[in-house]
Amino acid sequence: MTTTLAAAASSAGSPLWFVTRASALVAFGLLTLSFLLGLLTTGRAGLPGTGVRTPRFVSQALHRNATLLGLAFVAVHVASTVLDGYVQVGWLAAVVPLTAGYRTAWVAFGTVAFDLMILLTVTSLLRVRIGQSRWRAIHWLAYLLWPLALVHYLGTGTDMEASWGRWLAILAAVLVGGATVARVTAGVRARSTAPGARPVRGARPVRGARPVRGARPVRGAPVGHPATYRTVPAGPATSREGWR
After folding, report:
1. Is residue 69 part of a domain?
2. Domains in the chain, number
3. CA angle 58, 59, 62 (to 5 degrees)
4. CA 184, 120, 141 angle in degrees (round to 5)?
């Protein structure tokens, strides 16, 4: 521990050390933004609980660009950390967990998050080839990616020692947690109020109402209500003239 702190202190004036810290903060912010935009894209109509309406293609484009930009800053963060040389993190540790000599477990969380980020980005670019169902199954891993990145930030982030660094983590956790809960709640509510699941509000059954010949029942309408049956246009053989 003393050696690690001494190494960090000796590298405080290194340009690569500042690049490592800055790129990590920017990457974490972009990853949080990408996760929130992913929820916005899933919601289609807007961010759950806000009432904000955003066109789907706009949220998809922002989500894609934020993810790609975040991946670029993560690459800068990894490269500057390895090239700085003050902590025992090699190129292998960037992609293989538990191989770093510096805070092995905490770095491993970031390694797994980096691997998942690459997987999700590549499969999204190959979405048409791999198919919608496979892409969707793989994309569920995005809900695991962000918590791993947060744990990595909490365990290895130098700026966590500052109050603003801790508040940044708290703010991000509150935003992501709240948006996730709101998205799940909105999804459950949408399924429970799907067309045909419940009768139309204010509809009342009509006493003595009978179905009209040739009419078809309407799904979800109360029995006896005028909307219960949809009248089918009569053809030459079913009209009154046709029966004469």
Report:
1. yes
2. 2
3. 85
4. 40
